[in-house]
Design a protein that fits this description.
This protein has six helices and eleven strands. A six-stranded antiparallel beta barrel has the order 6-7-8-11-10-9. A five-stranded parallel sheet has the order 2-1-3-4-5. It is globular. It starts with 5 loop residues before the first strand and ends with a helix.
């Protein structure tokens, strides 16, 4: 999931989805967009190059009665690992059902920020990666406070699960450190002691598909905090999937 990861961006004539704008946004999150100005062009480009395309953005106003055959054709022309994300105005329930039957499970309903775009593309690119329900992660723009050794620093919650979070901060603590974290959920703040399991900092081991910051695992959060986290994650999952 580096800058060499290629992402199909399909535009359709008269589409209401801003696919042209998405090309720049995909490039901005460190990936390589491959624009296709119509479906025929998309069929050509998915099979080109030594580095296969394994993620694609499809406009949500793609004709619902054509989506199943369209996905099949793209998979036949390109990599069988190709995963798609629907992008644009939210669809009605019956339309979502057609997309699910076609094999499209992920969505980016407008409006969405670049962090959510990066998160969903990382999910699409991580083909075959099964995440247990209890470990489901969702992108957020929530604010957090980290306390280490009596000192506090602010952070943005890039992603969140019931058991941990990735905290975007230029001052990440090293792996193995113990921190106190407060996350300001819409329902109210939750606090927990947490262990740093990974730090993304400048250097040879930096992961370009993640912002600067650190991944933390909550250590025995309270029952109230657990319920609040579970409720928030459940709501966000529903908004990001078909």
């Amino acid at each position: 999931m580096s800058s060499s990861s290629r992402v199909l961006v399909l535009a359709l004539q008269d589409s209401e989805c801003p696919m042209t704008e998405l090309v720049g946004r995909v490039r901005g999150v460190g990936l390589a967009p491959v624009p296709a100005h119509d479906f025929e062009m998309a069929l050509r480009v998915v099979g080109e190059g030594e580095n296969p395309i394994t993620a694609g953005l499809l406009p949500s106003d793609f004709p619902a009665n054509q989506i199943r055959d369209g996905v099949r054709q793209l998979l036949k022309a390109g990599s069988p690992k190709l995963q798609f994300v629907a992008v644009g105005p939210a669809l009605a329930r019956d339309e979502r059902r057609r997309w699910r039957k076609a094999g499209v499970k992920l969505a980016l309903w407008e409006p969405f920020d670049d962090g959510t775009l990066r998160f969903q593309l990382n999910r699409a690119l991580a083909t075959g990666l099964a995440i247990p329900r209890g470990q489901q992660r969702v992108p957020t723009v929530l604010l957090a406070t980290i306390e280490v050794g009596g000192r506090k620093k602010d952070a943005v919650v890039y992603s969140l699960s019931r058991s941990g979070a990735f905290l975007e901060t230029p001052r990440a603590s090293p792996a193995g450190a113990e921190v106190q974290v407060e996350i300001r959920l819409p329902s109210g703040p939750v606090e927990s002691v947490a262990d740093v399991v990974f730090s993304n900092v400048p250097g040879n081991l930096q992961r370009p598909n993640l912002p600067m910051g650190m991944a933390v695992r909550f250590r025995a959060p309270s029952s109230r905090a657990s319920r609040a986290l579970r409720s928030y994650v459940k709501e966000r999952v529903a908004a990001l999937e078909m």
